[in-house]
Structure formats: structure tokens, C-alpha cells
Design brief:
Two copies of one chain form a homodimer.
Chain A: H1 3-10, H2 14-22, H3 29-42, H4 48-55, E1 60-65, H5 74-88, E2 92-97, H6 104-114, E3 119-123, H7 129-136, E4 142-145, E5 156-159, H8 161-174, E6 180-184, H9 190-206, E7 216-218, H10 223-236, E8 243-246, H11 249-261, E9 271-273, E10 290-293, H12 295-310, E11 319-322, E12 324-327
Parallel strand pairs in A: 1-2, 1-3, 3-4, 4-5, 5-11, 6-7, 6-8, 8-9
Antiparallel strand pairs in A: 10-12
Chain A binds a DNA duplex (16 and 16 nucleotides) through helix 2 and helix 4.
Chain lengths: 341, 341
DNA sequence: TTGTAGGCGTTATCAT
DNA sequence: ATGATAACGCCTACAA
């Protein structure tokens, strides 16, 4: 069933059918009615492939991300707001998830290109030379999310991982903690693995607190990895740190679970602070003190930015930083007035 | 940059270029090399729109679901396995999420049709007459997930919500509970809202336990709604039930959080059992006893089924039921030997 | 092994 | 207000 069939059945030319479909020009009311009835009758839908081929525009944005499941993850909120913005502007989303198989990124980028998406939103993780090459020659505009990469002239929106991590650590220090551990992310992940670690170290430095490597482990974002990292720290030293900064709420939850399982009280014996403010965090036992980043704003900003570029508007600023906020709940204890044992 | 340009630059005809792209026929090694170099050089990718238009096949499956970020997590596992199956068979996914705006389903179904997806995987929630009409006339095969609807001749894969809910409730009863409440789902959701409730009631019935309406509230799947439902139950009666069945892990978590916040011990004072076995459940405090349904299997099954239909294989069975399993953790207390107070 | 030409379903340009 | 026709970029007979 195509436009030709509809034309025949309504006894008009295909141009006229096209006109009623797109409201692109005047069509006499009677004819319009006639055509519309046939369309409804036949359950006809125009073929976007043909339309987009001829218009050289798909009204589709490719969104590339790297996460296990779209679950509670911090991404899902951003993606929802991206979806909203794009939908409001008549764009569709083509979602691709590498699930941490970063090599697949290029494969998806190719598919995007073949499918002729009008632009791409890229939740970055690692950034390699190959990324550089590919992005440099990419035929449509890209907006990067979550990772700063100044070599390339593509705009990006990030949250200030360094400052936020420093703030989290400072909070721990304010509360009297001096023995502080960290459960970090993979160092290939610049934002989470590197910047948050740097922020942590900076806070320690400025307060003249030495970093104890026995207190420092790395996870892969999963709940289990947080659990395992905490276990390693426990095994590393007979005396646990009084506080842990987990660079991800999920890892924080994994860590707390380990502690509770071992009969170690949180926050009475060990305080834990997270990062992300994922949905469950407020409902966890104990409710998690963490860094809340405005994921909705990030998605909104990135999508809007891309749309502007697509509209040919000049985008002068290339760097956008979303705000964060420390949300204090119950997983960190103030030990300033603790009687020394 | 199109096939014609490549042809010109490599000094061959477009058919030859097409042949090297698709390996569809013999091409002399020298010519092939020549063309391949130009392709690489020009960073050329074939236009799928044109290709799919002419082949009348997009190798794309539309996946329609209805979840808000949070809830996605029970879906996300299924979706991952769907993605795997489809990818292995050369299919792409087009994901659409109504986020509980069920009216948008039809809009997306239309888009799928316009984009000429080869088939659709439909995570059903509510099923109305309009669905009936639309599905009846839908031009490509549909496989339904999570909801049984026999009027239509479309295959579906579900988990046995009724039996699983009954099993969960029976477990509570076995452990000596007689005062049992439920936090249910919206009744428009046949599987979660109705079937799980029916299973609950069936278990009560067979053990001659009366259902106490003060113990029964309904949530909307969110953590908050679980919290609020538990609060209502608390307000309804001076004496809390000894156990609660929440038809969703997230609502169970919300409920537990409410109880803990009020100083009510879980499971010592109130036991809670969930449904879904979402990622965090094992790491919650206390670890959540729940029904684990094989979401991966569901996704795998549904995708495979659709592929079979697409391949013209006769599918005789229309109904597939995935297995479930009760996973016992620490949120339910055995009160059989409790000293009566 | 390689090239030519028609058609996939639209929209857009130009007549009428 | 309506219709004929040439693209859009590709694949696939059919020819050479």
C-alpha cells in the first residue's frame, strides 16, 4: 500500500495525496476529504524511508551510551529528558547501548551513519585516538556528555566531577574523619575514574591528610564490585578507615552491604558517602549521603545544544557544566566529638 | 557521497561498487581493491534508507515498552537479552518508551509502521479495545510480552504471575504469618495489578485466612508509592500485619524504608516479600526475599519467536510461560515458634 | 567479470 | 487547485 495506490483509489494524482498528507499546499476540501477517507480505510502510513531518502533528513538523533541496563542508572534520567526535548521538536531517538563493550562504539557510530541520523548524542566513557579520528571525520554534529575532551571542536556537557568529589571528601573531613578510603572507578573512565579520584586527593592534600593505599580500591560500577572492593579494604588492614567515599552510589550500596553483613555498623563504625543520587539511595538503609547531580539538566542541555547546531545557530560556548549538590542523609556520622578510644 | 561518486572515483560502474559492498557477486581482485580503497578514503557508508527502501526490509525490530526509569530495571534485563538475540541475527532495535503514557503507544506503533520495522516486541501493560483494533490490522508480526490476551492470534510470553504471587504468599503463610497485607499494582495492569493480587487471594483462601482490607493498598511501581502505601496501612490499623507482600521489589523497598524510619524492625516486627528480584534487592538491608523471574529467558524467547515468524517458520504454540523461583533472603521472619504475646 | 536501466515510495519543481 | 516528472541512493535483473 503506497501513495500510488491511494492516488488511484481516490482518483487523484500522487502529488495531491502527498499534499494532503503533508498539508504542504492548498487542496480543495472535497478532494481532501476523499483522500483522507481512503487513507483511513486502507490504514495507510507513508513510508519514512522514501520520504527521508528524498528529503535527506531523518529527524532522528542517535544516542550512544555505555551502561548495563537502562535501570536506575544515572543515565536513564538524562535519557528521559533528552527524549522529551527531542520529541517536542519532532525528532526521534535511535538508542544504542554498548554495555561497556567500548569497541562496539564504532560499530554503532557506523550504523548511525548508515541510518543517516541527523546528529548524535554521545555519553562518553573512554576517549582514545581512534575516537579522535572517527569524530573528526564524522558527517553529522556530535554533542558529548560526561567527558571533557578539548582537542576536538565538539561541544560537551559535563558535571564538575573534580569539584563534586572534592566536596564530598571535604564533607567527610568536616565531620571529623581522617582515615578515609575510596572506592574508585576504572581509570579508563576519565570523568568517574580519574576526575573523582583527583578531587578526593585534592581534598586530602589541602587538609594534610595522607592517602592510605590500603584504603583505596577500584570497582567497575556494579553493586558487586562495591561489595568486593570493600571486602578488599577490610582484608588490607586490621583497622578500617572511619569513612569511605564511593564514586558511585551503586558501589556505595555494595560496600555498605558488605559492612552490614560483617556486623560492622554504618555509619556508627564506618561512614559511607556516594555519588550520583540514584533513585534507591534515598530509600536505602541507611539512606545514603551522596552527591546529587542534575541529570535532567544535563540531558536537556545536551539535546537543546544539538538542536541548535542542527538549526544552524552559532554555538559559541563549547563547554557546559551542570551543577551538583551535596545531599546529606544518614550514612555519614559526625565524629568530631567522639570520645577517643 | 554516494555509490555513484565512489563508482566515478574508482572508474567502475555503480553495480560493481554495489557488488564489493555486499559481496554479492564475483569481482576481480584488482577492481575490488581499487574500490575498497576509495571507499575507505572517502569514509563512505552506504545509505540504509535507500537500501532498505529498495529491499523492502529494514532489519529493524520495534520494541515498545512502558516504564519510568526506575521500573525499567525489571525490563532492562529482558531488553538486553533481546538486543543480544537480535544483534546476533543482524537486526537492529528501535526502542520506544511511553513512560506510562499509554495513549502514546499508538503513536509509537504508527511511527514503527512508518519506519517500516520488520516486527514488534510489545511489553504490554493495559489492553483495551483500541489495542485490539490496532493489532488486528498491524502490517507486521507482533510478539507480546508480559500480558496474556487470547482474543488475538498473536503469540505472547509471560511469567506466571498468578502462581508466583501465590507461591510468595504461601511462603509467608508457611512461615507462620496470618496477618498478611499486600501492596498491589494499578488494576489496569492485568499482569501485575490483577494476576498477582489474585494469586495472593488464592493463597489466603486455601488456608482459610481472611483478607483484611486495612492491610491492602495500591502503588504505582515507584519507590515512593511503596513508602506511601505502607504508611497508609500503618495509619489504617493500630495493629500492623506481621507480613506484607509487595508486588514489586521497588515498592517493597519503599515499604521497608517506611517501617525502618518509624523504628519498626524488618523482619522482626514486619516481614516483607517482594517480586522481580531487581539488582539492588540482594544488596538491600535487609536483603530482600522475593520472586526471581527469568527476565533474560523472557527476552530471549520473545525475540527468538519473532525471528522465527519473520523467517516464515510456522509457530504452533502461541503461549509461552517463563519460570520463576522464590529466592529466600532475610526480609521474612519465621514466626512459627514465636512465643505468643 | 562488468555495465545499463528500471524501480523502491516519496517530495519537489514545473506546468497546466 | 491539480497533475506529470525528475530526483533521492541503492539493488537487481538483464545484457554485454
Amino acid at each position: 500500500m503506497n501513495i500510488k495506490d491511494i492516488a488511484k483509489l481516490s482518483d487523484v494524482s500522487i502529488s495531491t495525496v502527498s499534499r494532503v498528507i503533508n498539508n504542504s499546499a492548498k487542496v480543495s476540501p472535497e478532494v481532501r476529504k476523499r483522500v483522507e477517507i481512503v487513507i483511513k480505510e486502507m490504514n495507510y502510513r507513508p513510508n519514512s524511508l522514501a520520504r527521508e531518502l528524498q528529503q535527506k533528513k531523518t529527524n532522528t538523533i542517535g544516542v550512544l551510551m555505555s551502561a548495563e541496563g537502562l535501570d536506575l542508572s544515572s543515565l536513564s534520567e538524562s535519557i528521559n529528558s533528552i527524549a522529551d526535548v527531542l520529541k517536542d521538536n519532532g525528532f526521534n531517538i535511535m538508542l544504542a547501548n554498548t554495555r561497556f563493550h567500548h569497541d562496539q562504539e564504532f560499530e554503532f557510530l557506523n550504523i548511525f551513519q548508515e541510518k543517516r541520523v541527523d546528529g548524535v548524542l554521545y555519553f562518553a566513557s573512554t576517549f582514545t585516538d581512534k575516537h579522535y579520528d572517527v569524530f573528526k571525520n564524522y558527517p553529522v554534529p556530535i554533542v558529548m556528555i560526561g567527558q571533557q575532551y578539548e582537542l576536538l571542536d565538539i561541544p560537551y556537557v559535563i558535571h564538575d566531577d573534580f569539584s563534586a568529589a572534592r566536596a564530598a571528601t571535604n564533607f567527610l573531613i568536616e565531620k571529623g574523619h581522617k582515615e578515609i578510603g575510596i572506592i574508585g572507578g576504572p581509570i579508563e573512565d576519565e570523568a568517574v575514574g580519574v576526575q573523582r579520584l583527583r578531587g578526593f586527593e585534592a581534598a586530602l592534600n589541602i587538609h594534610n591528610i595522607a592517602k592510605n593505599d590500603d584504603y583505596c580500591e577500584i570497582g567497575d560500577f556494579s553493586l558487586t564490585s562495591g561489595y568486593e572492593a570493600m571486602k578488599k579494604i577490610h582484608l588490607n588492614c586490621k583497622l578500617l578507615p572511619t569513612a569511605i567515599f564511593a564514586v558511585t552510589d551503586f558501589m556505595a550500596i555494595g560496600a555498605i552491604r558488605y559492612l552490614v553483613e560483617k556486623g560492622i555498623k554504618v555509619p556508627e563504625q564506618v561512614s559511607v558517602i556516594g555519588f550520583d543520587d540514584v533513585g534507591v539511595s534515598a530509600f536505602y538503609n541507611p539512606p545514603l549521603t551522596t552527591i546529587h547531580s542534575d541529570k535532567k539538566a544535563i540531558g536537556h542541555l545536551a539535546a537543546t545544544l544539538l538542536l541548535q547546531i542542527l538549526n544552524g545557530q552559532e554555538v559559541t560556548t563549547k563547554k557546559f557544566i551542570a551543577s551538583y549538590e551535596l545531599v546529606v542523609r544518614e550514612s555519614v556520622l559526625d565524629i568530631n566529638n567522639r570520645i577517643k578510644s
